[in-house]
Design goal:
- The chain is mostly helical.
- The protein has helices spanning 4-11, 26-52, 55-74, 76-91.
- The protein has one domain (4-91).
- Helix 2 (26-52) packs antiparallel against helix 3 (55-74).
Length: 93
């Protein structure tokens, strides 16, 4: 037995893998994960903005979500290196 949402997730074009050397690139996998994470993240931001009755929270939340997903997909190595340097600097104090 197969669940309908599972079939839908398998058929998503964003979740399908490519062929050749591009499919082996870790950035391609991170882009796919970011693309799939976009929808639930946007829904949560909209729900938070509606609950708080503030359109500023909605706009700031969408902007932060986009920046965070972009950093995850395209700049993961640099972001991780920066976080490690900050943690080392704070732990040395």
């Amino acid at each position: 037995m197969s669940f309908p949402l599972f079939d839908l997730a398998k058929d998503l074009a964003i979740a399908r893998s490519g062929e050749g050397t591009e499919a082996d690139d870790p950035r391609v996998l991170r882009r796919r994960i970011a693309g799939i994470a976009w929808a639930p993240g946007a829904i949560l931001v909209v729900l938070l903005a509606a609950w708080s009755k503030s359109w500023l929270i909605g706009i700031a939340g969408i902007a932060l979500l986009l920046v965070g997903l972009w950093l995850f997909a395209e700049r993961a190595e640099q972001t991780a290196a920066l976080a490690r340097r900050i943690v080392r600097r704070n732990s040395a104090r």
